[in-house]
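Journal club prep — side note

Before the paper discussion, L.F. wants everyone to see what a predicted structure for a comparable chain looks like in token form. Sequence:
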Amino acid sequence: AFELWPEEAQLAAIVAHEVAHVDYLHTRLFERVSISFPGDTARLGRRGNLAGLLPQSGEEQRFRLLEQAQELEADRYGLLYLLKAGYPAQAAVDALRKLAGMEGPRLEGYLRTHPSIDERVKTLQSYAARIQDLHERFNEGVELLAEPNADNLKLAQENFESFLALFDNSREGRNNLGAVLLLRADGLAQRELIWRPGVEAL
């Protein structure tokens, strides 16, 4: 890893991607397949080359597509983690481009369970163009929740919904949107609150 990504920000992007795999329970799929194929787990690669354990069938294709979807999700949330850690979003794009420098069997094995590098770079670039604004809108929503009047709650809801449009599995985003909806229900924001939902920051 250090040879391929000697720059700190790019290495941080790779670590953020792997953390996202763990946070969003992608390893659970590996565990389920390990139970189904106990004698073959030694052949599973990093997080499991699940398709390699299955017959050449629609089931294999289904697992392969799922693995690729998980890679794209880890790219997306890894980018968010990278920004939260203070690194530029572009570092994730640059780190991914370096993978294109791999050759031979190493690259062939990588592409068996990952979307094409060109596809991932293009997708990450589109995320990077939006993530700073979404991060700022999320934080503004948190500030608005500190003073839950009707106008603030309306704007906070818009901010969290915009954030969740890209980061739909974000626990913080969902919890905060839930808090807003609860406070807006039945005019709760207009009354003295005995209990206020917790607000989670990124």
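L.F.'s comment for the group: The helical segments are 8-23, 27-36, 58-84, 90-99, 104-113, 117-145, 150-166, 171-184. Keep this in mind when we get to the figures.
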